[in-house]
Records
---
Amino acid sequence: MAPTYAQTFAEAKTDPAAFWLNAAASIDWEQKPTAGLDESRAPIYAWYPDGVLNVCHNALDRHVAAGRGENTALIYDSAVLGIQERFSYAELLAKVEKFAGVLRDAGIGIGDRVLIYLPMIPQAHIAMLACARIGAVHSVVFGGFAPKELAARIDDATPAAIVTATGGIEPSRRIEYLPAVAEAMGMAGHKVSTVIVHHRDGFAHQRSEFAGTDATWHDWDDLAALAEPAAAVPVPATHPLYILYTSGTTGAPKGVVRDSGGYTVAMDFSMRNIYGVGPGSTMLTASDVGWVVGHSYIVYGPLIAGATTVLYEGKPVGTPDAGAFWRLIQDHKVDTFFTAPTALRAIRKADPAAELMAGYDLSSLRNFFVAGERLDPDTYAWAGEKLGVPVVDNWWQTETGWPIASNPVGLEVLEPKAGSPTVPVPGYDVRILDGLGAEVGAGEEGNIAIKLPLPPGTLATLWGNDQRFIETYLEQFPGYYATGDSGYLDADGYLFVMGRTDDVINVSGHRLSTGAMEQVLGSHPAVAECAVIGVADELKGQRPSGYVVLKSGAGISEEDLAGELVAMVRAHIGPVADFREVRIVAALPKTRSGKILRKTMRQIADGKPYAVPSTIEDPAVIDELIPFLRPAGR
Ligand code: COA
Ligand code: AMP
């Protein structure tokens, strides 16, 4: 009889090293690990210390060798161009081998970093897997970030090369990537010598314009025409596969490091046990390769599982309408769909009765997963009713790389509860702690923490900064990983996630730092001080809202200042920050030690009961601020 969720969870909790060593048998190793866990550097743990493997081999070669070479690995569906392309496992492998040869010929080898700045096109898969093939460490940067954010990542990851394209296509405009890359390279202290450009038609700027700068700008196809295919290079399981930057409370992004062996096992395990996906399945994850959801469930997970992955270049609405997802399900016989709740809210807003759904055959669909932000019960009910398949909420983070809580439908379908991502996934020993680190009872809200060790596939450290890793995640509650989210476990062991305990916000499922936005506002010459908070937004979950105090004699109108600040955030962080709201206020509420009371501001803005700490410097400031935080109509 197949094991139940409860049995599997208990096994993983009782003896994690044995459980995960057993799970490791489902993937290919050059040298099989003899030990699950290395605890010698606790609280930093490493999985499969003596294992040797290649991640790309597990995603491609292994399936070709098993006779699945003609199965479809990747379907590229571009709604913005109106094209579809299919790649079998054998075809994708051939392209990846070639591009791995290109990278190798450019002098890139084991451990070298490659920054990938690409839109949602197959070259993203090819570049990522080619890095994995030769043991290079990729760092993919989302296309909606501005050059300054790109420069910060160049300086932290110090890549040997950048792989990019002439541009990305948003419904409203074309995004020129090359000037952004050149500007970022100019700003960065670290100098990158090689840029490889995939040419897409229809963009104003071309590679040739950048000849003569410090770097050599190559054409992808020119190099590929000359390169010999490269074989997969076995690397230690602990070798970094990628760095993915994410927002923290400060402006400096954190480089989450993913290992090779633990991640491959985690992808294989999660595909089967959480998503119920294997060879023969077709999974479409509507996110972006620049986010963790894209890394795990557009690229690595479905391919490691031997399934078909659909890469969708388009939006949930507007390309051309709110029936886009339903068209994709029908055209590609998708059985497993994954997106962010915001996308569902956008579809519902445009087509409340889901009339567009009626025109499509959705009979292939088995499960509809969502993650990235809280799934509100209204949207959950709407989607479940209209789709008629289980809508499964996943709670996780860039740091963990795969779900911490989910209905593990591949293992056992549990009774769902609205507002809950269901239960902790086997491998994650989730506890709710009070501020002092003591466990609280069922139903009581507290800090969500995970007892160490975290399972395979979760962050190994922060790039080049073990100390920051320890300080950020492991010191607050010794023996636990602090998730930064608050929530509770009910009496049945179901987890409810209520929101962040820090200043990270979630706009349309995109994780952003209000601290980074405050840094930008604070750099304006007229601004004395400022606060940015995330306020509840019907469509986007949250939106950033800025409050600034002017320097005396600043002499600028509210309208002009707001326009300048909005433009500055767009230029420094990127359009994805979606920063549009600024108000000038007389003062910000602070404690006597000078800490701005952002949580109180947030509670007022969201119309919730709010707490004013006794340490407040001047309680009158709160009363003056209320009309700004809760303007009429909000
Ligand atoms: N490259 C460049 N710019 C980008 C971009 C990209 N890859 N993605 C978004 N942007 C820009 C948009 O063009 C927009 O710019 P604008 O201010 O000039 O209009 C801005 O960033 C905000 O975009 P977006 O967040 O997409 O908001 P929207 O109002 O255009 O669309 C939704 C709303 C709900 C349709 C959209 O946010 C969406 O598809 N959400 C799902 C998010 C998702 O998949 N998240 C992944 C987490 S799992
Ligand atoms: P990211 O690292 O971008 O994936 O963002 C992670 C954060 O998004 C988490 O710490 C949560 O605050 C939030 N989040 C992600 N998924 C969910 C979910 N299913 N329910 C509630 N919050 C979520």
---
Amino acid sequence: MLQGKKIILGITGSIAAYKTAVLVRLLVKQGAEVKVIMTTAAKDFVTPLVLSTLSKNDVLSDIANNDSWANHVMLGRWADIMLIAPLSCNTLAKMANGLCDNLLMAVYLSATCPVVVAPAMDEDMWHHTSTKDNLKKLSSFSNHIIPVANGELASGLIGEGRMAEPENIVEWLDHFFLNKLELKGKKILVTAGPTYEALDPVRFIGNHSSGKMGIALAAEMQSRGANVTLVLGPSIITAPENIEVIKVKSASEMYEACISRFDKMDIAVMSAAVADYTPVNIASEKIKKNDDSFTIELTKTKDILKSLGEKKTDKQFLVGFALETNNEKAYALKKLQTKNADMIVLNSLNDIGAGFGHDTNKITIFDRGGKEYNFDTKSKQEVAKDIVNTIIKLLHA
Ligand code: CTP
């Protein structure tokens, strides 16, 4: 669940800071990217060198360092979550009152991501009325609080106030991201790849689609909690193991696979490059080169996206793609309308780094009302994130 998650770990001055070495190690092991910010007091309990080695990132501490400035605003925007562990009594009081006298506080006050704290202090401090009031304030600011544990304290006393164990903090984060999954429980149908229209037992009419974009989309949706069914044309790329894959060859097989499943779906994303025409006759034996010229009679395939658009209910969300070489915007908007889609993703073959075979793509999205969303050239994984974010935004619009 923490794979690829960006985490800022703020460490403050408490004896429990020594446990953050284990915490960072556990987070990194789970695939998270961790950037550590320490207060000056935290350095008395654990060294920046240990944490930079384990996090594989520089440890930040000062707003300004020689000639460089730590961009606290961008740090808060970079992170998926900001975790402050251990949270000392002093930093708790600063957070409750909006004080900004170090980098950690500057990042906290400008963070747009969720913030979670794991307090750590001796029992008497923990039970002080001001601590309780400050924690209430933190909750009222929508910060999350990981409960303290009961046990042996640095003072030698036994009681409440110990920082939650690193394993429990990781478990808390796991649950947090699991519950936050935006597409949790949604059933999504995705088509990807080319189709092959057979001419005879050895030949076919196909196209250059690799299926990379659709597979990246299916993986992104799955990682956000959706149940994805991927209808995949002949592609050499393998889909992630946790996705249900229906392998098809021709446009008519893809049509059958989609139409028979669509009723149960919440969302359908048609990213496949489906053949528009298919041979009227498929020779049962290999066609011999007896004549100087050879004519193939083709007939139109069924338009899958259009058929789903005709069946679509108000509760279903339909996404189409448009691959164009000219008059891109006009053609994309026409497809959006004629196929009754809720959103269309335009790829222009005129854009460098876009289209078949590339590892990158450049897209423009149009919603039902014709509103345009522009994106830069990015890896197909990043493009998949943009498409999924836009779907989620429009679902909640
Ligand atoms: N599509 C489909 N079934 C087809 C043809 C296309 O579902 N038989 C879908 C594609 O998956 C895509 C959208 O329709 O989501 C647009 O595909 P595109 O090839 O750009 O356009 P076409 O509708 O085929 O029209 P044209 O080839 O004339 O541009």
---
Amino acid sequence: MTSVQLMMRYVLTVVGLALAFLLRAEDGHRLWLRMERNAAPAEVRVAGPAKKTVTLAIAREELADFWKGEERLVLSVSDDAPGRDGFRIRRRGQEIQLSSASDIGVLYAAYALLRRQQTGQLLSDGQTVEESPSYDLRILNHWDNPDGTVERGYAGRSIWKWDELPGKLSPLYREYARANASVGINATVLNNVNAKAEMLSGDMLRKVMAIAATLRPYGIRVFLSVNFATPKLLGGLPTADPLDAEVRKWWTGKVEEIYRLIPDFGGFLVKANSEGTPGPQDYGRTHADGANMLADVLAPHGGVVMWRAFVYQPSNSDRACQAYEEFVPLDGCFRDNVIVQVKNGPIDFQPREPFSPLFGAMPHTQIMPEFQITQEYLGQSIHTVFLATMWKDCLDADTYYDGGATVAAVTQHKVSEKSLSAMAGVSNIGDTVNWTGNDMAQANWYAFGRLCWNSHYTARQIAEEFLQQTFTDDERFVAPMCQLLLRSWNVAVDYMMPMGLHHIFAFSHHYGPEPWCNLEGMRPDWLPPYYHQADSAGLGFDRTRSGSDAVSQYHEPLATIYNDVHTCPEEYLLWFHHVPWDFVMSDGLTMWENLCYTYYRGAEEAARFTDLWREMRPYVDAERYAAMLKRFERQSKDAVWWRDACAQYFARFSARPIPADCTKPVHLLQDLMEFHLDIDNYTAADMEKLP
Ligand code: GCU
């Protein structure tokens, strides 16, 4: 080795050590709240006659600990400040005033100021910012079971430690509350929509009370999912008929018991007559009968009912139609304190769906969107898919109600003075150290809160501020990673289910492709062939006027646009149409060619994500870098798996070759069809077992 080489080696080692020190291992537990604590507290005081609440004390402490500016901070609760959780931040010389009509508004202001500090958006002298949330209820739905498992959870077990409660309070509860408050989330449903009756037992309620007490200072109200048959299953009544006097009496007593323990209890979330759960239809009653009975019982306490519209029966020839058919006739029949909770699309959180036609179809009913933060259908905790893009696509979609109104507008509109607007997100949180399994999936929890707070934020703005706070504000990292996040949803759709394909997943666990899955005796609407309808003529589900007529559930001009194969947006082509393989698309290529090229493009882009992540190495701590690298590598392999499975499987029907300029498949279709993923105890360590 020459002396120059020796010298170089020495320099590199020193630089490497310095970098390693700077980028010391991070386990992701701190989420986007990675501010360094001040050695000496910043100057913060609470002005005016405000009651010294715990919430104000938290706001003050957060700022004292983490505010790095020169300015003095003054917090105040005052009637002339914005209400409904809103706030004002004003800088006057060397003083910054944070005010709101409520203490929780002041806490939101504190987090907003710290976010500005972290993202370099400092206030200039004389500047005033005012914010107030788009939705009243910004609510997470945990699909957590009393036994600690999480339905569709990919980040460990439930953070609610029911065995230890109420005696022992895990530190996770407070950290959870803080993280949520920092993005404006103000409500949470603790348990699975597939609810166990035992959730309402006296024992469980005392545990719920302990959690509620920990979350309360952070402005978070607790809700529970309830099993509609609880009066039977837990109360021992012979029926759960919502019109039965004894049933109503049982619920009245139960609700009084809950409010004695939890005076600010939020209310119930109900999945009724859906996928086998009990409900009012078991007694010949309607969804409105069921929802209103519970709403009446909750109303004197200020509680609300979130009644889900996720319903479908195998008897319906098109699953996409049923929610609309069951709920639209009930428009105007629901109480003020009922909110009908509607998944973003008409089927079930698929990689890409058009918005549900229920948005804009029930003008006399409070409707709320339900998004899925947990990535059941989008690569679980392995793939990086930034969902703000998808949610914006839904929120910004024009329903054409009354000449034109977006999904955001129709869901933010209050149908009565007493109604509350709301948005729900199915949580991706578990007890794994970094909360969400995949460090990048924290972005989806973050984005959900930010979009509830302001549905006008752009996906780009949210991605940027997330990356700056959670990783680094170095532009060499933020700019390319922001691009990656913004592309990631489209890329996943391309390699999984492009052009409107949907529900062609492996059975039950929904990880990986299985368009061929046709288990004997299984409900057809749980099987991929029901959705893709591949045959020698073409591909896709005919939902036109001559098919299932789902198109007619949309307002004009959408119904006509979707109905015509020549005007239907190409991203929904196979959602609404059974399209001939040789149908010529806008780029002059056939449907079959486009299908293949899109799968190939998706896989190529996924591979580029991995390359890009490798280039990010200098900017990321070693621990998160390595954890994400493994995931990006697996994601690009999965994309090839999807591509090879789908292109080769559909080729059997199209009887056309995969275009010659596409590379040869890596996998044989037969091998993929024989592969079965046993995912029950699937962890990141099992990634190597995949094709
Ligand atoms: C999906 C999911 C289920 C869940 C259901 C629901 O079908 O796979 O696990 O229970 O949605 O939203 O109720």
